[in-house]
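Hi support team,

I submitted a single chain yesterday and got back a structure, but I'm not sure I'm reading the token output correctly. Could someone confirm the output below corresponds to the sequence I sent? I've pasted both exactly as they appear in my results page.

Thanks,
R.
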Amino acid sequence: MFSASFISAALCFFLSSHAVAAESSKQLQPLNVSYASITGSRIPLWIAKEAGLFEKHGLNVNLIVIAAGNAAIGALMGGDVDILGAPGTTTVVSAAKGLPVAVIGTFGAGAWKLAARPSITSVEQLRGKVVGTSRPGTTIDFSLRRALLKLGLVPGKDVQILQTGLAESIKRVMIMQQGNIDATLVSPDNLYEAETRGIRLSVLVDLKDLGIYTSASDLSARREFIKNNRAKVRAFLAAYCEAIRLGKTNRTVALASFRKYMRESDPKRLDVLYKNYVEDLLPEKPYPMEEAIQGDIDNLTPTIPELRGKRPADFIDKTLLAELEDEGFFARLYK
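Hi R., thanks for writing in. Yes, this is the structure output for that exact sequence:
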């Protein structure tokens, strides 16, 4: 048994440590940041949280998972969320319809492939079939519809679109296994996961081969919040960029975050996650992807007339990252 003096000393240390932590926490500025799903593209947020980079830049960041779409935009506009990690397409459409929001950064490019049941070996065989998407207003939904049109299939006419409500593509693959859909967009790491589960898929096309360039997801904020809390938003982006650099230079740190947040332990899938989301797709300077936003404008204007005549510059704010770059932040980070 422990002595009374030992217990007393331990209790004093415990209370003292928590008092210091509480005092330190008071000095940090609170910031609520949401992201839409537990996918590998979120790795910079997880690294920044685990490595204490948010605290280094004076922030107490609360990470929240909110599914993309109206709920996420509503949380942002209501002030429950300060920075939104969700499809840039959602922000663009919302801004075109009058909401004062802007894309301030990106999680990197998307890498979607249109995959189907193994009996479907050609795009033409999709005619009359059911294709699964996630939710309306998400990058997956918009990208799927763009891909189908480029392949000569009109959504709602040549193929039926089923809203599954599932952001993670492996969950949509399981829906396909149950016979509820015939095809869906799948990420490279989920293709590997399906393979390890013994699930056979027929990859029909890579969206990049169709000239469809999308972001995996983006960072957005209210324009008023950016204006009134500029130093705080810059601090967030600085921590986010440091996390990118740490992930690219310290594989062990990145893999630890994948293990914790994605509950992944398979070494081969961890390799796929790292290569796809850190090495290949994660940019050192996460500026908003203007090419992807232009693609959204071009493809959505026929159905969203508010986008007519708009340019990517109307929906983004690059000034925060540009200020960091002009001050030599990236040069110091990657020296």
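A quick pointer for reading it: Confidence is low (pLDDT under 50) at residues 1-25. Let us know if anything else looks off.

Best,
Support desk
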